[in-house]
Amino acid sequence: ISNDDQIEPNSPVGNAFLRNNGDGTFTNISDAMGTNVNSVCWGSVFFDANLDEELDIFTVASRNGTGTASSAYFEAGTGGASYTQPTTSGIYANDTSISYGNALGDIDNDGKPDVAVLNHLETINLWQNQTVTSNNYLKIKLEGTISNRDGIGSRIEVFANGKSQYRYTHCGESYLVQSSASEFVGVGSATAIDYVQVTWLSGLVDRIENVAANQQITIIEGSSPLSTNDVTLDDFVSVYPNPVNEILTISFTDLFNGNNKSVEFYNTIGAVVKQVELSEMTSAMDISEFASGVYFVKIKVDNRYAVQRIVKE
Known about the structure:
The chain is mainly β. The chain has three domains: 6-127, no CATH class; 136-220, Immunoglobulin-like, CATH 2.60.40; 237-312, Macroglobulin (MG2) domain (Immunoglobulin-like, Sandwich), CATH 2.60.40. The protein has helices at 30-33, 90-94; strands at residues 6-8, 16-20, 26-28, 40-47, 56-62, 72-76, 83-84, 99-105, 114-119, 125-127, 136-143, 155-160, 163-168, 182-188, 192-199, 205-212, 216-220, 237-240, 247-252, 261-266, 272-278, 282-286, 293-301, 304-312.
């Protein structure tokens, strides 16, 4: 799985597994991958059930009451080159419901993703992941300050065991589905992750390094900024006073003399409330018209960004 592929469940002849060719086109590889479900499929999720760094697939479908399984769980082989459907799994043996959506979460907070399934006439199915494994995991929750509150549309890169894995935060997945706000990443035998890097919709990039496995972390937009040259602005710009009543001062060191500089102010729901182009190394801005509360100051110098939190009294 290249992290850019897609399961297309809503096809009258069964599902399609669409491989991203990287040129704006897709190829249906469902037959080759062994992931055919010849039914009316409604929802699919990629998830790493056994935390082995390979993304498995769970697809739900509606059938005509034949008593056969309507949902399908496909376990990824090495490298995600093919999939198998284990006939001994609880999902395969017991799920004969007409189903329309499936969502991921972690009901027992053990780091292994569980699945909730929305059914037609029956109550929901809640599949608890009881996989016995020594593999490790990382759960990641995003908190946006500029892009949006939940970091929707962000790309997360997790680098461990010499390779990268990617996750994307979505607002809605498949039909009638919104999975947990936490992203699940299986990291196999790794007890520490080299780095976690988040690219937000705002263009900001946050990166944290040497992250211990088997925990949930929260990454706040702008809290660990990474510039294009691995140099952050925070050491070269001052924003004061904080808290502020009327006049806020932004001051740069001589390192950025002559560079293009600008500043944007955002409220807590991500709306821009003020934009200013800066020509001086030290600029005083009147923000007396701002209502009292918390704001985020996005400072841009050429292609570098920094975000600082201020309190308006």
